[in-house]
Specification:
Number of helices: 11
Structural class: mainly alpha
Radius of gyration: 20 Å
Number of strands: 0
Shape: globular
Distance between the termini: 33 Å
Keywords: Cell junction, Cell membrane, Eye lens protein, Membrane, Transmembrane, Transmembrane helix, Transport
CATH superfamily: Glycerol uptake facilitator protein
GO molecular function, one term: structural constituent of eye lens
CATH architecture: Up-down Bundle
Protein name: Lens fiber major intrinsic protein
Helix content: 55-70%
CATH topology: Glycerol uptake facilitator protein
Catalytic activity: H2O(in) = H2O(out)
Strand content: under 5%
Largest sheet: none
Number of domains: 1
Family: Belongs to the MIP/aquaporin (TC 1.A.8) family.
Order of helices and strands: HHHHHHHHHHH
């Protein structure tokens, strides 16, 4: 529980709230229909991708800039952060998403708001197909997240932020036609909560969480295994200073000991 006593922990939690708020605000805002005609899928894909890339660049060193409960859950499955941190991250992300959607709702003319870019399933797509699409979309995205954040790849080439942004844009270019490309439960929950429309909403939680879990297991145990025992993984989950976490701050020495040392 040392994490909750660390200022860096609360900075990271706030960073996840703030980043998700910005992500949802710009992503949903770029997805609104301001004119007649079909929605520009490329515009939406670039907006979400560039938003993610920007936030990873700005806040990646603060919290990891997960901005997505599915990504955080995958890192939890891979024992790369503690259960406590993961829980706080996911709550902050959901609340940040709702805050971003609420701000957008308040700033947008009533005639333009529509359903606030709510994720919806194409009429010809079944629930099973939609869930499977969300699994695959999130699978490729989280695999990219794991690979670009892997500190063992010292010789990696290119920008981490751009790689994640491109991966997210790729998911939107494909998934927009099927499910609206959720890939992020916080992004899907935000407009659903504001518009009070939760029709088939479970798809946008089950699909991404399953896809993220598969990606975490596939990367950490098959594609690029981490040689860690069960005891070490459990220690990380309990918050004993795992990868991506700062070690506990040492207690300050009593004044008498400092004086003796001098």
């Amino acid at each position: 529980m040392w994490e909750v006593r660390s200022p860096s922990f609360w900075r990271a939690v706030f960073a996840e709230f703030f980043a998700t708020m910005i992500y949802v605000f710009f992503g949903l805002g770029a997805s609104l229909r301001w004119g007649v005609g079909p929605l520009n899928v490329l515009q939406v894909a670039l907006a979400f991708g560039l938003a993610a890339a920007t936030l990873v660049q700005v806040l990646g060193h603060v919290s990891g800039a997960h901005v997505n409960p599915a990504v955080t859950f995958a890192f939890l499955v891979g024992a790369q952060l503690s259960l406590l941190r993961a829980t706080f991250y996911m709550v902050a992300q959901v609340l940040g998403g709702v805050a971003g959607a609420a701000v957008l709702y308040g700033l947008t003319p009533a005639a333009i708001r529509g359903n606030l870019a709510l994720n919806t399933i194409h009429p010809g797509v079944t629930l099973a197909q939609a869930t499977t699409v969300e699994i695959f979309l999130t699978l490729q995205f989280v695999l990219c997240f794991f690979a670009t954040y892997d500190e063992r790849h010292n010789g990696r080439v290119g920008s981490v932020a751009l790689a994640i942004g491109f991966s997210l844009a790729l998911g939107h270019l494909f998934g927009m036609y099927y499910t609206g490309a959720g890939m992020n439960p916080a992004r899907s929950f935000a407009p659903a909560a504001i518009t009070r429309n939760f029709s088939n909403h479970w798809v946008y939680w089950v699909g991404p969480i399953l896809g993220a879990t598969l990606a975490g297991l596939l990367y950490d145990f098959v594609l690029c295994p981490r040689m860690r025992g069960l005891a070490e993984r459990l220690a990380i989950l309990k918050g004993a200073g795992g990868e991506g976490q700062a070690p506990p701050e040492p207690p300050e020495e009593p004044m008498e000991l400092k004086t003796q040392a001098l």
